Amino acid sequence: MTAIQLRLDLNKNLFLRDPQNTELGKRIVGEGTQLISEIGFEGFTFKKLSERISSTEASIYRYFENKHRLLVYLIARYWAWIEFKIDYETNNLIVPQEKLEAALRVITHRAQADITFPEIDEGALQKIVIAETDKIYLTKQVDQDNQVGLFKGYKSICKKISDIMLEINPGFKYSRALSSTLLEASHQQIFFSQHLKSLTEIDANGDPFQQNYEFMKTLLSNALNAEA
Amino acid sequence: MTAIQLRLDLNKNLFLRDPQNTELGKRIVGEGTQLISEIGFEGFTFKKLSERISSTEASIYRYFENKHRLLVYLIARYWAWIEFKIDYETNNLIVPQEKLEAALRVITHRAQADITFPEIDEGALQKIVIAETDKIYLTKQVDQDNQVGLFKGYKSICKKISDIMLEINPGFKYSRALSSTLLEASHQQIFFSQHLKSLTEIDANGDPFQQNYEFMKTLLSNALNAEA
DNA sequence: CTTTGGTTAATAGTAATACTATCATATACG
DNA sequence: CGTATATGATAGTATTACTATTAACCAAAG
What we know:
Two copies of one chain form a homodimer. By secondary structure, the first copy, chain A, is mainly α. Chain A is globular. The first copy, chain A, is built from ten helices and two strands, in the order βαααααβααααα. Chain A starts with a strand and ends with a helix. In chain A, helix 5 (96-108) packs antiparallel against helix 8 and helix 9 runs antiparallel to helix 10 (208-226). Chain A has a single domain (4-226), classed as Tetracycline Repressor, domain 2. A two-stranded parallel ribbon of chain A has the order 1-2. At the A-B interface, helix 7, helix 8, helix 9 and helix 10 of A face helix 7, helix 8, helix 9 and helix 10 of B. Chain A binds a DNA duplex through residues 17, 22, 24, 45-47, 55-59, 61-62, 66-67.
């Protein structure tokens, strides 16, 4: 795959001012990704980021309402990127089993800078997704955030995979549930392999992304075939 | 089942002073559970709790290092409670399939005050587990916390279920991974049914706990039988 | 060439949070 | 009775997550 660059149209509620439009915006997003992946979201502040990009807190606040929104924005970009890759990889495939395998490969594999954003380090972004994704919806404002469309990208991928499952087995009753379970497992199992090793056979010293793919493929094909 | 009361020996690192030993300790834990389930963990502070129990911040800090530790403590109690119930329900069962079903029922079902803690509202505690569990390990200190045994209870349940799976199918390669995936799904799917409905078929207006049980049972039996 | 609009920097300030420290009082226990 | 322990009362601190104001800069429009 040739390296191409992406520019996304994301939900307008994800930001106050589109960071893709300005130099400062790109630095906020690019260095923000690095900083969060380095020190973790809890320790991250706009103050620290402003020092890193030689700007000010107030300037960052003009792009994002607060640090939570920045996190949601970054992760939305990740899922938009994943969705694009699923479309790309499944394009022209006819056999639904092949489509599903291709999609599964995309959601489980290590981030690679094939299709990329100009200013974002995809490896760092994937690290954020692994460690912080669940925090975007595990909040009191989840319903409001959901209502203004902040989670559209994630839901869209879930539906996409669910639809492929239904092509394979139209009678399967839990395609959405299985799809979201797999999406969650795609980062959770990697996290466990790094930090809570007894919770998984996946081994961070081997090729955890590949192992996770195999685990999930096993789960999937059995679940779908059995009910056929 | 007759109502019985539990007193647990939890890891000493979960608290500074054992809250089960004193009146104040029990109020911290009991009212803390209520308050977190009401306002969410982010909005929760020791200040607010101290007002609610007519005590002081400083007194609460004598029991728990910080609010994160209190959350870890509460959730550890939940999983210890679940583990006890699994042991109780699987006791004397011989057929591993039956054991697995019984365990699955325990981890998926709505909290009931059958086997109980004196001061804790199990319904509120389960609400906390559904909304906050992942926050106990999605932190920068996860490795240190893990090292001092804060997550022992969760890991123990994961192993227990995994072992039953291996009784059914000794050749299954992903028993730990599947077990942790199901444990995570046991609260995640309920959360989705309440807040991000398009991510699951489980319907919060029906009997979501029962539906979740059926979803997970489907997953499980297919995964285990296929590889037999 | 000047005005204007838009972007950013600089600075200051605030309420709340997450603690820590100190001291006095109550109570319990041996 | 004396002493250890638990709690309460109070105060204080560094940091966080913002908000507000003003001034400087720059590009395009008139």
